[in-house]
Amino acid sequence: MISNTATGTGSRLINLKCPACGAEYDASVTNTFCKVDACNSTLFAQYDLGQPLDKAILKDRPASMWRYRELLPVIGEENIVTMGEGFTPIIPIENLTHFTEGNEVYWKNEAGNPTGSFKARGIGMAVSKAKELGITTIATPTAGNAGGALAAYAARADINAIVYMPKLTPQVFKDECRLYGAELVEVDGNIADCGKLVANGAAEYGWFQISTLKEPYRLEGKKTMGFEIAEQFNWQLPDVVFYPTGGGTGLIGIWKAFDELEQLGWIGSKRPRMVAVQSESCNGIVTAFNGGQTSAEFVDGGFTIANGLRVPKSFADKVILKVLRDSKGTALSISDAEMDTAVKEIASHEGMLIAPEGAALWRAYKKLKASGWIQPGESVVLVNTGSGYKYLENITI
């Protein structure tokens, strides 16, 4: 169903399109990634953005990611699987202002989502679309939070969930998967090893795999962070957005959201500079960006306290690097020791126990501020992707 009215009545989804080769796919059937020759790109959902849509439609809608339903891929509202995910707060730095003097610095705090992280957005969207497409079993590799989110949303949708997780993942992530009723498989390896096992199982047993960016719909959930940032800043985007980058779905999604909002006329052409922050353990994007490369190498230096950043190679590395360059952004990596210190600094001064992935952004911000890359008067958003409570066994006390 495509809405052609300014008031908006439902999804304006048209089809799926490969951003690399331009191939188009029917969104009414199950798709994964581009199958043209050796393209293998993630697919982007396309919407009818040519017809007028007044942003006043948002005024009385619930404060969740589903308030943007015209620009989301689930057609039938009966298929939406929701627990109130999205519309997380923008929180200004209050006490560490000696580090932020001359700038307005905010957290976009995703810790309050169901299951404690931003993964609720992408997984909630993917599970909802899977329900609409009649899928009965979903499998995913995970570094932690995505597995818990899949287990929870699959339970709510009455869909079977199979989760492959590295053995080194903190116990709380394993426990929540089992409590939600998912089948959990612990793997002696990293998330890439888990991904290979999921792909093999999908081929043999017919599971639908929702590995990061190997299907189109997790991206659509994550992009709602971009919609919210625009709305929460009164449709005037901040100057810089920092994002912890493992698979990079959120970074790509936020950028896609800004493009869609401009096409609707809700924002202008101004874009923030995007900053990808990685762990020194898995810093392939940083190395590729600094080396002027268009794709990243496989890099796995082992365990990091930011479990979500142990992604040796993103499936969408080329897209991530393009976003960084198109936005005139940058990329940098942070050590575990720096993340650990930053977790404690934010907790003891700002009253927020953030995930190490989010803490990496705070350290990255301070480095770029000191170097002059962050300029006086600029507004900055740091996207904290999850709750630090799940990482307590990784953090020194």
Topology of this protein?
Blueprint: E1 13-17, E2 24-25, E3 44-47, E4 90-92, H1 97-100, E5 104-109, H2 119-132, E6 137-141, H3 145-157, E7 160-166, H4 171-179, E8 183-187, H5 191-205, E9 208-209, H6 217-222, H7 224-232, E10 240-244, H8 249-264, E11 273-279, H9 284-290, H10 317-326, E12 330-334, H11 336-350, H12 356-371, E13 379-384
Parallel strand pairs: 5-13, 6-7, 6-9, 7-8, 10-11, 10-13, 11-12
Antiparallel strand pairs: 1-2, 1-3, 4-5
Shape: globular
Ends distance = 53 Å
Widest β-sheet, arrangement of strands: 4-5-13-10-11-12
Please work out how many helical segments DSSP would assign: 12
User: What's the CATH architecture name of the largest domain?
Assistant: 3-Layer(aba) Sandwich
CATH fold group of the largest domain: Rossmann fold
- What is the CATH C-level name of the largest domain? Alpha Beta
The fraction of residues in strands falls at: 15-25%
Could you state the order of secondary-structure elements as H and E? Answer: EEEEHEHEHEHEHEHHEHEHHEHHE
Average pLDDT number: 95
Which blocks of ≥5 consecutive residues have pLDDT under 50?
1-6
Main β sheet profile:
6 strands, mixed
| Helical fraction | 25-40%
**Total strand segments:** 13
The chain-level structural class is: alpha/beta
Number of domains: 3
Gyration radius from CA atoms, angstroms: 20 Å
3D structure, described in words:
The protein is an alpha/beta fold. The protein has three domains: 13-79; 90-117 and 219-391, Rossmann fold; 119-209, Rossmann fold (3-Layer(aba) Sandwich). It is built from twelve helices and 13 strands. The protein has helices spanning 97-100, 119-132, 145-157, 171-179, 191-205, 217-222, 224-232, 249-264, 284-290, 317-326, 336-350, 356-371; strands spanning 13-17, 24-25, 44-47, 90-92, 104-109, 137-141, 160-166, 183-187, 208-209, 240-244, 273-279, 330-334, 379-384. The strands form three sheets. The chain has a six-stranded mixed beta sheet, with helices on both faces. A four-stranded parallel beta sheet has the order 8-7-6-9, sandwiched between helices. The protein has a three-stranded antiparallel beta sheet with strand order 2-1-3. The protein is globular and about 55 Å long. Residues 1-6 have low confidence and may be disordered.
